[in-house]
Amino acid sequence: MHGHHHAHDATRAFAWVTLLNLAYTAVEAGYGFATGSLALLSDALHNAGDVLGLGLAWAAAALAQRAPTARHTYGWRRATLLAPLANAVVLVGFSGALGWEALRRFAAPPQVPGATVMVVAAIGIAVNLGAAWLVRDGHAHDLNRRAAFLHLVADAAVSLAAVLAGAGIHWLGWEWLDPATALLVALVVAAGSFGLLRDAFAAAMDAVPRHLDRGEVERWLLAQPGVRQAHHLHIWSLGTGEIALTAHLVREDAGDHDAFLDRLAEELDARFGINHPTIQIERGGDCAHDCIQRAPHGRAHDHAHAHAHPHPHAGGQHRH
């Protein structure tokens, strides 16, 4: 219930943030065209790119709540990993186009009303910081929320730069500040999106999550009672808040495999946040094994050799 409530809150937050930014983007773009300010238009285009990204994050959060099916046995959790990747690609393309237009305008910067630029951009600071506050919870470990949070904070910084540019134009008559601000926006976006693109691509390629050390997990498994070897160890993200692990452990036949596997699943979750482990026990190097698979909200289940064993499991029996 807690996970479902958290997912519902995430979807609602993305909805509010997307609609709020869409409304502000329309207003800012209107003033940008009316005044001919590239600073406002660049900020509006930046916001438009973020609205697209936020929309993708919103859709991904909604898709992640869909139940698993016979075809999509993990559900649609991976949407929360693919949306940030698409988001980062859009931002990289946007920064290149904006930088090119800013350089072109340096030759003949148009006259723009600095006071209007200041007021509209100041509203943008409030809008973006308020939206970032709505998605702040869990952004450190949620790639989907992290993408949205970084975009909104960057937008607030860009709006601040536009306010300063408007002040320089209004009081000092420095028209070159308009394309200079747009070029600064392009550099900020490029720098901010590189890390996101790297992390999102790694997650899409089933890399070990950045906050986990595979060697540390392996050493911990080898330190468990009776474990002599650990191999075929794989760790990857299924989606936001879902980390999977598969491993083969060579262990002496101590007769306590059920309790051992249950404890292992619980401690992997508590220590590393690995909440979907599948562990195969090999006794003394033989091919005979026990296998467990722990559901996201259930207990670990033990299956000896290749025979079917009924166990209480949400939705019925589990077979190996």
Textual characterization of the structure:
With 320 residues, this protein is an alpha+beta fold. The chain folds into two domains: 2-204, Up-down Bundle (Alpha-lytic protease prodomain-like), CATH 1.20.1510; 214-304, Cation efflux protein, cytoplasmic domain (Alpha-Beta Plaits). Helix content is 60%, strand content 13%. Strands 1-2-3-4-5 form a five-stranded mixed sheet.
CATH level 3 topology of the largest domain: Alpha-lytic protease prodomain-like
The global form is: elongated
Tally of distinct domains: 2
Number of DSSP helical runs: 8
Kindly report the average pLDDT value: 75
Going by helix content, strand content and strand pairing, the class is alpha+beta
Largest sheet: 5 strands, mixed
Low-confidence stretches: 1-6, 287-320
